[in-house]
DNA sequence: ACAAAAGTGTTAGCTGTACACCCATGG
DNA sequence: CCATGGGTGTACAGCTAACACTTTTGT
């Protein structure tokens, strides 16, 4: 049901029932804003200036206003926090809703969490207010405020899982990018090295994943042969999926990371690997 | 942020701010309770007795109470609606949260949707109240109340996707089941026929998916050779995944259903195939 | 005896993986 | 001219898909 049909109110479903009959719930959004800076995963965090958790880092977010959906609220907050003008094209994904009664000691706060993926990282808004916002390395985080550790870990899991079977990797890339940059997205989020030739073939074999920039455009990231440029395609799903390596070891096997690039996808204060989260294709 | 740090309230984050400063939000849960009856997918629905949408079928659900999480509320509602005594072992999965401001004409209702998977279908509670609850065939539904069509379609997508890479199929089966019954879960939800020998091998090759019931137990579903019985294993992920057939046709290709069993997985009044939903591994 | 479902075996074709190799550029 | 990264080719392992075939029951 959508409204007044629950255990006690069942069947009495009034027309204009008392809106204030129940203890009020605050509905907020929390954003896990992820980007790649210098080849490592970064998260946008704000420093809390007040109790509870004064001085701790927390995910940006805020109240859902009376006339907007959670998605709209998330996009508005994203624009405010990052200072970006057009947030409309950015990838925003609803993670899940966190509703434990004691997650905020002050009152009942139900929070709809989102993951946002940004191409390049503009310096955060640093709005005139007290709270400072900053990009921090995902791998070097202390415990966050509230249950934001768990939310962030869930966001990382979800993004990692979606890389396997969707095209969201391009959401981390600028409008034009090389296949090497695209591969770095996978390697950074997964914390594993990928075989460049095979990665290239996989991506190009998927119809709408990327499309070449026709002009013999090229660009260099330093030394080496100039790479061709690509734009994000129209497809949003990957067939067949691009599975993580290290996979297929069925029995127990801790996250042995034979990756030479990133040390380990160690989450900040990673709550359990969240096999219980409502998504997150393990692998 | 979890509470008072949003655009306008940023930085002022008071200790005991006015709980009633905002228009109140009602927080509810909606349940898409799925089960298999006679080889077809069924959904638990309640008939609305009042406006809006009087006479229409709707998903069961209700308010989240002040001291419980959405998950707890969902499980409580599930117990109430199905009349089952121990709902603790049943598979419950948070889908996503629906928060469009106009989704309920009476007031602002934010609803956390869940999908529940039941093994066998007890006749619904049919509690003494006015609203009657009933199992209805998923393929023969008229438009539901509110945005419940979309929620139900999202639930179906999610369950279909999770069958590919998780072991939730056993959640539809009784404690002991045959591999034929397990295969029927896949065939019914996906609307496609699977090759029994290959399905068998896939399942048995996955370590923790199912485990044989040691006693030379067997059971018959009618004619044919008696089948061995299995119990659900401890694993919750499938490696490698059990992908849907009809897959791998990359370009446009409407849901051509070459399935001899189910006619088509046609959703009730299926909103767009929801490539936009926050999960749902297409295929 | 026949139909139906369980279960075993076998094989052709595809895909992923690993790795060798060539190309173009900066230092 | 060497290191570095882009890009191509190729061969082997493993898996999937398709289907033939045997087993065991009910009618």
TrEMBL record, chains A, B:
One of its GO terms (molecular function) is hydrolase activity. PROSITE patterns: NUDIX, NUDIX_BOX. This is NUDIX hydrolase. PANTHER family: ADP-RIBOSE PYROPHOSPHATASE, SLR1690 PROTEIN. Pfam families: NUDIX (PF00293), WHD_NrtR (PF21906). Residues 234-283 are annotated as: Disordered. Keywords: Hydrolase. InterPro entries: Nudix_hydrolase, NUDIX_hydrolase-like_dom_sf, NUDIX_hydrolase_CS, NUDIX_hydrolase_dom, WH-like_DNA-bd_sf, WH_DNA-bd_sf, WHD_NrtR. It comes from Streptomyces lacrimifluminis. Residues 24-166 form the Nudix hydrolase domain. Residues 252-276 have a biased composition (Pro residues). Belongs to the Nudix hydrolase family.
């Amino acid at each position: 049901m959508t409204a007044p049909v629950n255990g006690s109110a069942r069947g009495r479903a009034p027309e204009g029932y008392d809106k204030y009959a129940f203890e009020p719930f605050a509905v907020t959004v929390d954003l896990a804003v992820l980007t790649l800076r210098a080849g490592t995963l970064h998260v946008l965090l704000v420093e809390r200036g007040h109790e509870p958790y004064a001085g701790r880092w927390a995910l940006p977010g805020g109240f859902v206003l009376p006339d907007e959906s959670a998605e709209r609220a998330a996009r508005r907050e994203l624009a405010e926090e990052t200072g970006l003008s057009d947030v409309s094209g950015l990838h925003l994904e609803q993670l899940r809703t966190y509703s434990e009664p004691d997650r905020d000691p002050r009152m009942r706060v139900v929070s709809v969490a989102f993951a946002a993926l940004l191409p390049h990282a503009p310096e955060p808004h640093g709005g005139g207010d007290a709270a400072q916002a900053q990009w921090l390395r995902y791998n070097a985080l202390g415990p966050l405020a509230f249950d934001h550790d768990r939310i962030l870990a869930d966001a990382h899991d979800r993004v990692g899982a979606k890389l396997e079977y969707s095209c969201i990797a391009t959401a981390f890339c600028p409008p034009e990018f090389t296949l090497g940059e695209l591969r770095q997205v996978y390697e950074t989020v997964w914390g594993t090295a990928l075989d460049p030739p095979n990665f290239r073939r996989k991506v190009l074999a998927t119809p709408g994943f990327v499309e070449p920039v026709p002009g013999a455009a090229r660009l260099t990231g330093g030394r080496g042969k100039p790479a061709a440029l690509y734009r994000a395609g129209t497809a949003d799903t990957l067939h067949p999926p691009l599975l993580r390596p290290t996979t297929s070891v069925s029995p127990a096997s801790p996250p042995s990371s034979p990756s030479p690039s990133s040390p380990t996808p160690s989450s900040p204060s990673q709550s359990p690997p969240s096999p219980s989260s409502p998504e997150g294709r393990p692998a």
